[in-house]
Amino acid sequence: MKVEVLDIHGKETGRKIELSDTVFAIEPNDHAVYLDVKQHLANKRQGTHKSKERAEIAGSTRKIKKQKGTGTARAGSIKSPVFRGGGRIFGPRPRNYSFKLNKSLKRLARKSALSIQAKDNNILVVEDFNFDAPKTKNFVAVLQGLGVENKKSLFVLGDLNNNVYLSSRNLKRAKTITNSGLSTYEVLNANKVILLESSLEGINQI
């Protein structure tokens, strides 16, 4: 499929570029997308949750009342989970939530995500640009030129460009990554995916 190349002002340059049908026009695999997004979110979890169990509570070890004759249940420790301030039964423990996915499945998920966005006309191809210095207002001008200032946008660069990256870092709705860092979650989480020309060579080879 061929798409028009835009400049940073959102105007057509008169050039068209070929997007690989094997990446941008496949039948999306919903389950692969689900698994890749699930893994992305699971990997972001810290897993540092912890509550104290019975053996970790600081408290007296004496038997709080006699075993028989009280008419109530037996109780041997103030640290029992049935008492206020006692330990928690089967409480959360630190754990690692990450899990493994095959590389082929992750590639399929990324292709599916790009195909979904392409089908919805949410992908723009923009000629490469650079800034002389990191300036947020310069990046805002690019967003306004492309008409995406009020939308969540994902800019995909061919190589890391510090001036462009730093210019976008303070903007809540804009994110800049390189094609090597492209993920299914980031693609689907954006309202518009803006691909710079230099990024297409790497993306077409996913």
Automatic annotation (TrEMBL):
GO cellular component terms, A-Z: ribonucleoprotein complex; ribosome
A single GO molecular function term of this UniProt record: structural constituent of ribosome
Cross-referenced InterPro entries: Ribosomal_uL4, Ribosomal_uL4-like, Ribosomal_uL4_dom_sf
SUPFAM superfamilies: Ribosomal protein L4
One Pfam family named in its UniProt record: Ribosomal_L4
GO BP of this protein: translation
Biased composition regions of type Basic residues, renumbered to the chain: 43-52
Region: Disordered, residue numbers: 43-77
Keywords of the record: Ribonucleoprotein, Ribosomal protein, RNA-binding, rRNA-binding
Similarity comment: Belongs to the universal ribosomal protein uL4 family.
HAMAP family: Ribosomal_uL4_B
Quaternary state and interactors: Part of the 50S ribosomal subunit.
Summary of the function given for this chain in its UniProt record: One of the primary rRNA binding proteins, this protein initially binds near the 5'-end of the 23S rRNA. It is important during the early stages of 50S assembly. It makes multiple contacts with different domains of the 23S rRNA in the assembled 50S subunit and ribosome. Forms part of the polypeptide exit tunnel.
Protein name: Large ribosomal subunit protein uL4
Species of provenance: Urechidicola croceus
Protein encoded by which gene: rplD
